[in-house]
Amino acid sequence: MTLPAHTDHGGAGPVVVLLHSFLMDGGMFAPQLAALDGFRCVTVDERGHGGTPATGPFDYGDVARDVLGVLDHLGVERAAVVGTSQGGFVALRMALLAPSRVSAIAVLGTSAAAEDPAVAAGYRAVLDAWVSGGAPPEVLSGVARICFGDFDASADEKRWASVPPAQLTLTMGALVDRDEVLSRAGEIACPALVLHGSADLAYPVERAAELADALPAAEPLVVVDGGAHFLSYTHAEAVNPALKRFLAAHA
């Protein structure tokens, strides 16, 4: 297996793996790296993102195995996993695939359900417009609005415009065709923290509530007032204290 691009940020504390959202990379966790100074943080570029290419169709179980491979490479037996949106999909699957390797999970702006068919159809239409039209500005701004809310995403929109169509097709396929894991959430016994923005335009708070209810060792759901979908990035000041407290107790 070719290891995904990753960065071990060092530190003597417990290991925390940070898994990014769709269209992003490990760099989105700069606000968390500054706050989690008592931990050994590892960021990973997931398949088709950042420095990790996708060479064919894949699912989030494959990405979970990729991340476990990074832990093997680093000689890390056990880690806490923090995931935003897509990263949360991967965190949940890591906890199901290798429960002995995951000490705790914290997921933000995520869902354990399969994608709603109507939403999936909309995403496929966005993909078609993006691939055929060379990333039209109105498509990029619409996606940015879903992901960032009112947060300034102009730099990310410029970066997205250069994403190769083949990579975008593969990563979008993994997103819209993902399997549901809500029915298996009861198997995840490790401590869990679910955070969600009240203004998340991708998944309603109900998706977070059902996940928190289904995870046996979950703390009460944390709803960030006005929080956007890429919650850890856009609302770090509200997120970081909750994350740090949770990880100090359970990582």
From TrEMBL:
<dbReference type="GO" id="GO:0003824">
    <property type="term" value="F:catalytic activity"/>
</dbReference>
<dbReference type="Pfam" id="PF00561">
    <property type="entry name" value="Abhydrolase_1"/>
</dbReference>
<protein>
    <submittedName>
        <fullName>Pimeloyl-ACP methyl ester carboxylesterase</fullName>
    </submittedName>
</protein>
<dbReference type="InterPro" id="IPR050266">
    <property type="entry name" value="AB_hydrolase_sf"/>
</dbReference>
<dbReference type="InterPro" id="IPR029058">
    <property type="entry name" value="AB_hydrolase_fold"/>
</dbReference>
<dbReference type="InterPro" id="IPR000073">
    <property type="entry name" value="AB_hydrolase_1"/>
</dbReference>
<feature type="domain" description="AB hydrolase-1">
    <location>
        <begin position="14"/>
        <end position="235"/>
    </location>
</feature>
